[in-house]
Amino acid sequence: MRPVWHLLFSGLVLLFAAVPARAAPFYVLAISWQPAFCESSPRKRECRSQTADRADAGQFSLHGLWPQPASRQYCNVDRPVREASNAGQWRELPVLELSMRTRESLERLMPGSQSYLDRHEWAKHGSCYAVADPEIYFRDSLRLLQSINDSGLAQLMRDNIGRRLSASEIRAHFDEAFGEGAGERVRVACRDDGNRRLITELTIGLKGDIPGGASLSQLMLAAPPTSRGCPDGIVDAVGQQ
Known about the structure:
The chain is of the alpha+beta class. It has a domain at 25-72 and 131-234: Ribonuclease T2-like (Ribonuclease Rh, Chain A, Alpha-Beta Complex). 40% of the residues lie in helices and 17% in strands. It has helices at 4-18, 34-40, 45-48, 79-86, 100-109, 117-124, 134-159, 167-178, 216-222, and strands spanning 26-32, 61-67, 164-166, 186-193, 196-207, 232-234. A hairpin with a 2-residue loop joins strand 4 (186-193) and strand 5 (196-207). The chain is globular and about 45 Å long.
């Protein structure tokens, strides 16, 4: 006859084996080429104040980090806040409690925070993040953005200001910087501006434990591939063209 402890242990093994493993969370990181954004939104505060020597003139800026699926929004957010956020009344949204260091980084790397984009992104998307804390949400978002800009992508964009850059070239850069196949997780967005097609944004699929410190390479390679989006576009310079 088996000891009681052995029977209990066997029962626990069967119990945990029957519980399916929790799927790793899936996200989309959206990063903007601010000069192209400002072509269509020149009255925005962050566009009126943009200069050629400001950080967002030569590197990607943070738009948002979006938990997936896309329907996962406004988690435990009161209705008045949701309505104000969706109506574009972002200044009326609750002030975020952020450290001085994170606030300063947002001012530099998320110029839309001048128009309270940070409050909107937190209410709509950050509230559904793995850790329900705006400090952690934005700190993690900025870490991922910085990894991309530091990879040489910002330099690639600066080297091609005023010229056409293809989605294939951008994806090839991600393959080189973050591992073969990483580029298949990158989608390029463009906008037609008269006779020009401008690169406006990249959306990047990520899967894994971002708050736990997973590297960008790990997160990208674990995510499902996506379509390339816009085939090519011009890298816009600061100022109305």
